[in-house]
Amino acid sequence: MTPKDYVRFALKNKGISQRELAASLGENAQVVNQQLNRQNDLKAERFIEIMEHLGYQFDFEDNGIRKITCGLEDDILAGKFKGDKFYTEDSECSYTGYKKVEGKFLTESFWTKSDCLDWLND
Q: Which single residue of 17, 67, 98, 101 has CA 20 to 30 Å from 79?
């Protein structure tokens, strides 16, 4: 999937049209539609801005571990994101780590972020 495909997936998942996205961003719908439909490349900064606006997170920790939003776990396990170490923060204040070992992802849940990051770095 391309970044534009992820934005379209997120819009569909949230039940928001491109026009509604543009309005919520305070931007012209034509500009957003052009970025998502007619340009060959969606700039990384713009992709992150739109996805964060929709409630998804793509943050990097200093140690190279990526924090992602819940709901993208299947994409991680399918190898659709670059990287070997990820974690999510669940709504119940628990953390789930995803780490690739010998070509397969291991998954572990933790009550604290520090325990999760320690496991990912181990």
A: 17
Within 13 Å and on the Cβ side, how many CA atoms surround 20?
9
Closest listed residue to residue 18, CA positions, set 6, 5, 30, 2: 30
Gap between the Cα atoms of 14 and 20, Å rounded: 11
Average pLDDT, the chain: 81
State yes or no: pLDDT of 110 exceeds 70.
yes
Q: What is the pLDDT of residue 61?
A: 58
**The pTM is what?**
0.52
Cα–Cα distance for residue pair 26/62, rounded to 1 Å = 32
